[in-house]
Specification:
Blueprint: H1 5-8, H2 23-27, H3 42-73, H4 76-93, H5 96-102, E1 103-110, E2 116-117, H6 119-127, E3 131-146, E4 149-162, E5 165-180, E6 183-193
Parallel strand pairs: 1-6
Antiparallel strand pairs: 1-2, 3-4, 4-5, 5-6
Helix pairs in contact: 4-5
Length: 194
């Protein structure tokens, strides 16, 4: 008995698989120096393997794109947007603990009326009930991150209750966020009339 086609393949070191089974592959000298005999069915196998490899490569590339999308989406801008959403929820709930965690001690919180609050005045006004927001909707949102700082802009629509009076709110807002020990916290906010 002679050697099998696979034994003649110079790529036989790969456990039973030669992905290069072509006339060229078998025209290469074998270990003994003589050319390998031509394969009878190798070209058919090579064509099928090419189809399977092409489909497999397409699948792997598609899978890579699907897996990579969420990774790209989870950049610092997305983290800042999540912090903006958390602050909005804390304001709606008048949650003092969450508000304290989301704003820095040096907070400068400017209102469209021109009033400016520090951290304690901002948190106290919401947690005491003197000022509350039954509804808040943020639109036209943008966030840009530069190092450990972020600039956020949006339109703030909602309803406010201050000193017992209810009124609509439609203002523009500029916020400055700072990454503090790995989490985004509000450093400054200025509202303006639209």
């Amino acid at each position: 008995m002679g050697k099998s086609e696979e034994e003649h393949c110079p790529h036989r070191g790969w456990p039973g698989l030669c992905w290069l089974r072509t006339e060229f592959c078998h025209a290469l000298p074998s270990e003994g120096g003589a050319p390998n005999p031509p394969l009878r069915k190798a070209n058919v196998l090579a064509k099928h393997r090419s189809s399977v490899l092409g489909a497999l490569l397409g699948f792997v590339l598609a899978l890579h794109c699907l897996v990579a999308l969420p990774v790209r989406a989870a950049g610092p801008e997305v983290e800042v947007e999540a912090a903006v959403d958390a602050l909005t929820q804390a304001m709606l709930a008048a949650d003092g603990t969450a508000l304290d965690a989301l704003v820095l001690d040096g907070l400068s919180y400017g209102h469209s009326s021109g009033a400016v609050q520090d951290k304690s005045a901002f948190v106290e006004a919401l947690t005491s009930g003197r000022s509350r927001f039954p509804t808040i909707t943020l639109t036209n949102r943008t966030a840009s991150v530069v190092g450990d700082d972020a600039v956020v802009r949006h339109v703030f629509d909602g309803e406010t209750v201050a000193n017992g009076k209810t009124g609509p709110v439609h203002i523009g807002v500029l916020q400055v966020w700072h990454r503090d020990n790995g989490r985004w916290r509000l450093l400054a906010r200025q509202a303006f009339k639209l």
